[in-house]
Structure formats: C-alpha cells, structure tokens
Write the structure tokens for this entry.
Amino acid sequence: MTSVTERTLRADARRNRERVLDAARECFAQAGLDAQMDDIAATAGVGVGTVYRHFPTKQALAEAIADEYFDQLAASAREGLETTDPWEGFSSFLRRSAQVQAGDRALAEVMGAEPEVMCDAANRRPDLHEALAELVRRAQEAGRLRRDLVPADVPMLICGVGRATLAGSAGPTMSTRRYLEIMLDGLRSPGSAELPDKPGG
C-alpha cells in the first residue's frame, strides 16, 4: 500500500513539474529556446536540479510543450465529434485549435526552432489523426465541406492562421477570428476553385 508520505512526494513532484513547465513557457515566450535552464528554475521558484530531474534537456521541455498542444487538439477533435452538426463540429475544431496556437508564443518558438519535435509529437497521437479524419468525412458527407480537402490539409491551415496572427507579432490589426472566417468560407462546399494538388504532391 502506498504511504501518505509517498503520495505527498508524488503530488509535490507533479506540482514541481507543472511549475517548471509553466516557467519554461514564460521563458521561451520571452527568449525563445535560447532561454537558460537557470532562468527557468528561477522563474519556477525551484532549484536547477529540480528542472533537470524532470526535464534533462531543453528539448525535453520542448517535447512536453508539444505533447500538451496535441493533447488539446485531440480533446478539441473529440468535442467536435460530439457536435450534431458536422460542419459546426469541423469548423469549431479549427477555431479552437487556431486560437490556442495564436495565443501561445512558447509553442510558436518550439514550432519554429524544433519542427521535428512537433512532427514526432503529432505522430504519437493516432487518436487525433483518426478523429480529424472523421471530422472531415462527416462534413464532406453532409455536403458542407469541399470534397477535395484531405485531413492532412487541416494542420497546415491551422498553423498558417495561428502563426500569422500570433499574439503580439503583428499588432492589433491581425485578427485570428477574421482570418479563420475567411479561411472557413473557402472550405465550404462548393469551393470557389478546384485545389491544384495534394499535400506532398
């Protein structure tokens, strides 16, 4: 049986990990991945040894940030599938996902500096890919989403809007909501023009 002391230590370790990760987000947002582990420790209010115990390298911190992002996307996709209206399920997924990215400067730093970390994190989430494919299929079968869209298009669209409207990067005229609605209007069926090729083509 787990003792009270062991449970307390585990709870403390979880809290410390969350504090370090929150501090890393703050430091990466300010200094990018050049942020030092000492600065992250100071921001978290823990010793640098605690940082290294949970995250031996800055890449490990980047991986944790990427994993959290795809956790949010997977949850958003599941929420979309629970929506009765197929178009609303698909479009609400895009809206939530782009808004998350547009408000997360630390995530943008990881995406820009460590794209392979993002790819690896995405590849570890087959549940997300399956839910996204189902969102696309439902909306297309309902006649609401252009039929030449493929699921692989969607992450690139989210990244494009999210990065272009990242908070603080281009001033108040860059509205995530505005550009999302322009993009969604182009995705409605029937589309205005046939798409020229597929991703990777």
Notes: Residues 58-187 form a domain with the Tetracycline Repressor; domain 2 fold (CATH 1.10.357.10). The CA atoms of residues 27 and 35 lie 6 Å apart.
